[in-house]
UniProtKB/TrEMBL annotation:
GO terms for molecular function: structural constituent of nuclear pore. Signal peptide: none annotated. One of its GO terms (biological process) is regulation of mitotic spindle assembly. Residues 91-117 are annotated as: Disordered. It comes from the Eukaryota. It comes from Notothenia coriiceps (black rockcod). One of its GO terms (cellular component) is nuclear pore. This is Nucleoprotein TPR-like. Residues 97-115 have a biased composition (Basic and acidic residues).
Length: 133
């Protein structure tokens, strides 16, 4: 066996060791790949479930958002109505107060006129009694 043959055998032995190491690495990588594919499948299944769980929530959110918008509009309308009613109430109260003052003044003037009339009639009655006596 020559040195050349020994070198070739040694080179072949190194190649076989390298091939063996590469085969082991390929097996480990395939195992890791299978594990990652399984995890990816589980993650995809979980994502699909979460998407199906979230879909009704999106619909509910959409409906509630619509309802909220409608209720906000109703609230604004009611607030405007309230402002108008408050203004109308204030106006009516002012009119009533003004009317009461005017009415009292009118009644007071009328009362004074009636008092003068009563005094005048009392004087005339006394005068007539005096004339008759």
């Amino acid at each position: 066996v020559t040195a050349k043959t020994l070198a070739q055998q040694e080179e072949q032995l190194k190649k076989m060791e390298t091939i063996s190491a590469l085969q082991e690495t390929v097996r480990m990588l395939n195992t890791e790949k299978d594990k990652l594919e399984q995890e990816m499948q589980q993650a995809q299944t979980k994502v699909k479930k979460l998407q199906s769980d979230i879909s009704p929530l999106h619909q509910s959110l959409s409906l509630l958002s619509e309802k909220n918008g409608s209720m906000q509009a109703d609230k604004r309308i009611l607030e405007e109505d309230l402002k108008r009613w408050k203004a109308k109430t204030q106006q009516l109260l002012s009119q009533q107060k003004d009317g009461d003052v005017e009415e009292r003044q009118k009644l007071s003037t009328e009362r004074e006129a009636q008092q003068r009339r009563i005094t005048q009639l009392a004087e005339e009655t006394a005068k007539l009694k005096t004339e008759l006596a």
